[in-house]
Automatic annotation (TrEMBL):
InterPro entries to which the protein is assigned, alphabetical: Flagellin (IPR001492), Flagellin_N (IPR001029)
PANTHER family linked: FLAGELLAR HOOK-ASSOCIATED PROTEIN 3 (PTHR42792:SF1), FLAGELLIN (PTHR42792)
GO molecular function terms noted in the UniProt entry: structural molecule activity
Protein name per UniProt: Flagellar hook-associated protein 3 FlgL
Length: 304
């Protein structure tokens, strides 16, 4: 078959065009750092990348939810620890009232006033907020769980605060993140003791020097302390579970990010080397083409 001048020109232009396109793609990779800049670059890899993006977005959403849940539960646990410490302080004052003889009215009033102030701090802890929501709000965290009252302390837990608040931490998996004020104070159904009644009676019994009543109060306070400690321990198990889940999801997110990076990210050293090689080939091809192809009338047109 005879090789004509036109065939040589066409083949030369075809090769030059392909090489120029390859160099343009390499330039895109150099400027973006990505090998997937257009869907046509690698349709299969683009599809896999989109799937990885969706998976990563979902996992990161659960990751954020877990962080919020852990912050909520850790703050709740800290408040419960403070309540236990306060109840133990009240318990020590009750023992002082029981073991101190010949108390004057002033002594009794001082002990009663001290316990009253300590009891108020418990209700202040129950009104702890995270942002605009109440940690111990139960069914409605936007409403304060503590209201004013005419009892000795001046406060009481209010409303239906026993309901749980759940957060979804993974597909099909939810965790209860809250403890309600009524659970802590023993006003919820199934509680072993009512701390609200115990605190009120303790204040009155200290003021009146009611030894028999104080003995009952001391027993009820210990039961109440155990109740709050158990609630905090159960919360601790949920914190441990959420922390383990957070670690798993964090590792999964890292794996997906690495997979996504393998699909998207360009090997810059390889791209630079390839670009320099192709640039050299392109320049050599232009020079060779100018020597092999026969001159045309264009060569004889005056410059400028």
């Amino acid at each position: 078959m005879q090789i004509t001048q036109q065939m040589m020109v066409n083949q030369f232009l075809y090769n030059i065009t392909n090489e120029n396109t390859t160099m343009q793609n390499l330039e895109d990779e150099l400027s973006t750092g990505k090998v997937l800049n257009l869907p046509q670059d690698n349709p299969l890899a683009v599809s896999q990348d989109m799937s990885a993006r969706a998976t990563l977005s979902s996992a990161q959403g659960y990751q954020n939810t877990l962080q919020s849940a852990l912050t909520w539960m850790n703050n709740t646990s800290s408040a419960l620890s403070q309540i236990v410490n306060t109840l133990q302080s009240i318990q020590s004052y009750v023992m002082e009232g029981l073991n101190t003889t010949n108390q004057t009215t002033s002594d009794k009033n001082a002990l009663s006033e001290t316990v009253q102030q300590l009891s108020k701090t418990i209700y202040q802890e129950l009104d702890t907020q995270q942002g605009s929501r109440y940690l111990f709000g139960g069914a409605d965290p936007l409403q304060p769980p503590v209201t004013t009252s005419t009892n000795n302390i001046g406060y009481t837990t209010s409303g239906n605060t026993a309901a749980s608040m759940e957060m979804q931490i993974s597909a099909g998996i939810s965790i209860t993140v809250n403890v309600s004020a009524s659970q802590v104070m023993g006003t919820a159904s199934g509680s072993t003791t009512n701390l609200e009644s115990t605190l009120n009676s303790t204040i009155s019994d200290l003021q009146n020097g009611n030894i028999t009543g104080l003995q009952t109060d001391l027993t009820n306070l210990q039961t109440g302390i155990t109740q709050v400690v158990n609630i905090n321990a159960e919360l601790g198990s949920r914190i441990k579970r959420a922390t383990a889940m957070q670690t798993q999801i964090s590792q999964y997110v890292t794996t997906v990010q690495n997979y996504k990076g393998d699909l998207e990210d360009a090997n810059m050293a390889k791209v630079i080397t390839q670009f320099n090689t192709d640039q050299g080939v392109f320049t050599a091809a232009l020079k060779m083409g100018s020597e092999i192809l026969l001159p045309s009338l264009v060569n004889y047109l005056p410059n400028g």
